[in-house]
Design a protein that fits this description.
Length: 128
C-alpha cells in the first residue's frame, strides 16, 4: 500500500469521527482492530466495542473537528504516525483545542491497531 493511500485512510477515520459516522470509522479498521488510548490506559478491541465506544461518546452534545495533519509514514512497517489539532465545541459554548497524535498500524489492507496519545481529558472511554 502506498503512503498516500495510508494517509487517506487516516483522514477517512477522522472524517468519520467528525461526522459521527461509525460506518466510515470502521471501514478502515480490521474486524479485530485494537483501539487503545495510551495516555489514559483505556482499550477496546473489535468493531462492536469500537462502535459502542463512539456511540457512547456521541451521546454528548457538541462537535469535534480534526485538522492540521502531519503524517509520518513507514510503508514497509505499515504504520502511520499522525499529529493533528483537535477542536471541541462543547454544548455550553466553550471551545477546547488540543494537539494530539495517533499511530495507526496496518493488518493487511486495514488498520489492526490504533494507538491514541492525547493531552488532557479523555473522551474516548469504553462504553459502559
Amino acid at each position: 500500500m502506498t503512503g498516500v493511500n495510508m494517509a487517506a485512510m487516516v483522514e477517512t477515520y477522522f472524517r468519520g469521527v467528525d461526522l459521527r459516522d461509525g460506518a466510515m470509522i470502521l471501514s478502515v479498521m480490521a474486524p479485530d482492530c485494537r483501539f487503545h488510548v495510551e495516555t489514559h490506559g483505556d482499550e477496546v478491541t473489535g468493531h462492536a466495542a469500537i462502535g459502542a465506544m463512539f456511540n457512547h461518546i456521541w451521546e454528548n452534545p457538541g462537535s469535534v473537528a480534526h485538522d492540521a495533519f502531519i503524517h509520518t509514514i513507514d510503508t514497509a512497517a505499515g504504520r502511520v504516525a499522525s499529529q493533528f489539532r483537535v477542536t471541541y465545541h462543547r454544548a455550553d459554548g466553550s471551545v477546547v483545542v488540543k494537539s494530539n497524535a495517533n499511530v495507526f498500524t496496518l493488518n493487511g489492507p486495514l488498520f489492526g491497531d490504533v494507538a491514541v496519545y492525547m493531552a488532557g481529558e479523555n473522551r474516548l472511554k469504553p462504553a459502559p
